[in-house]
Each structure stands twice: as structure tokens, then as C-alpha cells.
User: Fold this.
Amino acid sequence: MTDRPSSAAHGSRTLVIGEALIDAVTSAVGVSEEHVGGSPANVAFGLAALDHPVALATWIATDEEGNRIAEHCRERGVDLTPGSQGAPFTSVAHATLDESGAATYRFDLEWQLAPVPGLPDFDHLHTGSIAAVLEPGGSAVRHTLRTARPTATISYDPNARPSLMGDPEQARLLIEECVALADVVKVSDEDIEWLRPGDLLADVVTEWSGLGPALIVVTRGGRGATATLARTGETHTTAVPPVTVVDTVGAGDSFMAGLVSGLLDAGLAGGPEARDRLHAARLAEVVPALERAVATSRLTVARAGAHAPTRADLAGG
Assistant:
């Protein structure tokens, strides 16, 4: 494949749509800390750390927590879109870690989406998790995906939260609507187990491939990740090198940021021409993006909270 400049070099802009909130994390021994988080927000921070121009369309207030999130965005070079600070209160996710560092969540949140000005100016759009499903904002997110599709590639991460998404059958309908609008889907094996209990993972990937995306990536925690090309059905699995896990907060989001970053750098995301290249791509062309995703998530779990690795971090291993 011919080398192409990175998205930062050729000015490709990414819009991330979704929740930004405060993660209140309690360790297995009862120690509590607060971090700025939210799955889509973490993806935005991850992309910015990897030198991609990125904006975040979210729903926070101008209270203490919301102002903290806005400052976090400024410090990390993520632009907040107009209307993102119209919420009556800023959402909080309460995460409790077990002895292995794995997190379980409960939420105090509301989600809406203000209209995004300048939507055609963005070449790639990412969304996922609560924002694409929870009403009243979920409908606006899916409408925005449909509106942006002619001018932008789309990535999507279901990142299921059973405590908020309710009945898995109903959630599945909304999630698969987003899958059909996306070019790239990243989903965990745990998401699939909740959404499609009893179904073989490979069967779900095959079915989703027929809905429209070019690339589906399934993550399996410490067992690595598998990319599938919808056009050919070819697969490639990348293993995770050994790592000491501090916690898993933000690991999937870091993976998503690394995957999108790699695709942007390869010219396989970032506008309709990139969409055509992605849908025609060979497996070898997407493997570097998969490897970057594994590398970023590995660096994240080795640090407390939703650490966003930089290109220098990746170079240092």
C-alpha cells in the first residue's frame, strides 16, 4: 500500500459524539478517586493524544464537574462543540474495581445532543456506548450519523452498559441500527454475549458484516483482538503482550482511539474516498491499525484510570 500522510498532516478532522462525565472509582480496598471519563470522551482524548484534530459533542453542565470536564478538554486539545454545556447537571459514573482491576458501573446521568454546527467539516465521526442508545439523545445521535455519512467515515463501539440499556433485545435493535450506519465496528466479546446470548460470536460477526460495515473488530480482553473484513470474511488476530494490569478503566476506549488513529493514518478513514479504500482493503492494510489499538490499550491498563497514550509512548513500548 502506498504511504499516506497522517490525518494530522492532511487536516482530517474527527468528531466524537457521546457522554463525558466524572468517573468516581472505588478500588477493591475502598479507596476512592475521581477522573474525567465517559467512553466517547475517552476516545476523543485518546485521538488527541495521538495528534489527531478532534472535537467532542457531549452533554455537560456549567457546574463544578462540567467545568472540570471542559478544562480537561482544553488541556488535551479537544474542542467542545457549541451546545455541549447545556445540561442541567453533569453525569457521574460510579465504578467499583475488583481485585483483578476489572470495573463494574452504576450511573447518575442524563443524555441529550444539541445540533452540531459545521457537521460537513468533519471527515470522520465516532460514537458509541450510552450515547447511541439512551433517549432522548440516542435518536439525535443516530440522525446525526445518517446526516454525516455522505461526507464522513463512521466508527462505532456498542460498549454495552446493561444497567442503563435495559432489555437487551430492545438495545440490540438500536445497536444494530448503528452497526448498519458504520464503516468500522469495535465490539467486545462481553457485549456480544449480553446482546446475543447463546449465539456464536463468529455468526454474529458474519451477520453484522452483512449490515454494511467494512471492518469489524472483536476484543477479548487479555486474549487479544480479531479483525474481520466484511468483503472477504478474512480474519486476523493480534495477541496482547504480557502486561501488569493496574485497572481496566478506559481500556476499550483506548483501543478504539488507537484503531481509528491507525485507520486515519493509513488513509482508510476520513471521508468518502477513504471509505472506498477501506471497503476494498486487503487484510494486511488494516493489521497495523489493529496492532496500534492493542498497543494503546495495553499501555492504558498499565496505568490507573483512562490513560491516553501518545505516539512517543507507543514508540517507547
